[in-house]
TrEMBL record:
The keyword Repeat does not apply. Its main location: cytoplasm. Its EC number is 2.1.1.77. InterPro entries: PCMT (IPR000682), SAM-dependent_MTases_sf (IPR029063). It is found in: Cytoplasm. It comes from the Bacteria. Belongs to the methyltransferase superfamily. L-isoaspartyl/D-aspartyl protein methyltransferase family. Gene3D superfamilies: Vaccinia Virus protein VP39. This is Protein-L-isoaspartate O-methyltransferase. It comes from Streptomyces catenulae. Pfam families: PCMT. PANTHER family: PROTEIN-L-ISOASPARTATE O-METHYLTRANSFERASE (PTHR11579), PROTEIN-L-ISOASPARTATE(D-ASPARTATE) O-METHYLTRANSFERASE (PTHR11579:SF0). Keywords: Cytoplasm, Methyltransferase, S-adenosyl-L-methionine, Transferase.
Length: 372
């Protein structure tokens, strides 16, 4: 065994120990999978964020293996705007999602949407066997690279090319489905391709949810305690949505309606952002520093609606907004209800997706029908 292989094994064990201490890894099966699969085989070159910088690592660099086995997302591909479109996701998030998987039966395949470098597919192969894993990505170059990485690691899942929103009908039904990219709503195809009693584990908005398939292809379950915002779904390999900075100048200088509002929580905090992402799957959230003060901004490109929320020192804020929609008014009721309920974590919320596709969010006795 080479010195590199020995060091890889040591660092992998340390990461597994960390994930176990933090509660991300709980079961023997996933503990074994994360212990067995060498992450470096899937990311021979990547960048990761270090402070305000993106640092590139390549196999053979002095700190390469230490970076590979850090609990952070490792970006492997970017679009024309410089936005990351493929990565090896943060191991703790992957572990929590894998632990939430509960396939129906022990023979149906598991569908992995968002192949990326192939590391998550390898973990699934180790847990369920390569013959029970189907993985799909929209980008042919990503699928080609993942196939090489998986073969080198000794795994051979079924790799397919296509839009993840369509699931993968050719290999259905599935015992479970895991999607490692962000989506605004659970696509109908997912509910129809997972067997009754199986589940869907996905990143919707800024939350991670585990939904069990019930009668008539309904799906219901709770959000996991951890929040996450994965890379957004791409309908095609060359899709490159405009990044948030595109709207910064317009929102910063726009004039419209102005009013004073009460703030039950800072709009940029994690839970208000989580609730906002569920109400607004197609609204861009970002913060700006205007006149030395942090301002939270919302932009809805399709309707050209926008909002600026400038917090004051006494629990109030100045709301400036324009366009046909008052974006802040649409999400404020959920944030107020969360604050009145003593600011619970995300796992206090449940989600039901009805056979019609309608999404309903619940907190205790309160419920909200989420817009399409």
């Amino acid at each position: 065994m080479t010195a590199t292989a020995i060091r890889s094994g040591i660092l992998r064990r340390r990461l597994v120990q960390q994930l176990t201490r933090d509660g991300a890894l709980r079961s023997r099966y996933w503990h074994e999978a994360f212990s067995a699969v060498p992450r470096e085989l899937f990311v021979p070159r990547f960048t990761r964020r270090e402070g305000s910088d993106l640092v590139t690592y390549r196999a053979g660099d002095p700190d390469y293996l230490a970076a590979v086995y850090s609990d952070v997302s490792l970006n492997t591909r970017y679009d024309i705007h410089g936005t990351a479109v493929s990565s090896s996701s943060q191991p703790s998030m992957m572990a929590r999602m894998c632990e939430a998987l509960a396939p129906a039966g022990d023979r149906l395949p598991v569908l992995d949407l968002g192949t990326g470098p192939g590391y998550n597919a390898a973990l699934l192969c180790h847990r369920y066997g390569s013959d029970r894993v189907v993985s799909r990505d929209v980008d042919p170059n990503i699928v080609t690279d993942a196939a090489k990485h998986l073969a080198e690691a000794g795994y051979s899942p079924t790799l397919t090319l296509g839009n993840g929103a369509e699931g993968c009908p050719g290999n259905a039904p599935y015992g479970a489905l895991i999607a490692t990219y962000g989506t605004g709503r659970i696509p109908d195809a997912w509910r129809h391709q997972v067997a009754r009693g199986g589940n869907i584990v996905a990143n919707i908005g800024n939350g991670l949810v585990a939904l069990t398939i019930g009668d008539h292809r309904s799906a219901t379950g709770h959000f996991l305690p951890s929040l996450a915002a994965f890379m957004r779904a791409r309908p095609t390999a060359d899709a490159a949505p405009a990044p948030a900075r595109t709207y910064a100048g317009t929102v910063a200088t726009a004039t419209g309606h102005m009013q004073e509002i009460e703030l039950s929580a800072a709009p940029g905090e994690d839970m208000p952002q989580f609730l906002g992402s569920l109400v607004h799957p197609d609204v861009v959230d970002f913060s700006l520093l205007l006149d030395g003060q942090s301002v939270h901004c919302l932009a809805h490109p399709r309707s050209r609606s926008w909002a600026r929320i400038t917090p004051g020192p006494d629990g109030t804020a100045r709301l400036d907004h324009g366009g046909p929609r008052n974006l802040w008014a649409e999400r404020a009721p959920l944030i107020s209800r969360w604050a009145a309920a003593d600011q619970p974590n995300a796992d206090a919320y449940s989600l039901t997706v009805y056979p019609t596709g309608q999404h309903e969010l619940r907190l205790g006795d309160s419920f909200w029908s989420l817009p399409e």
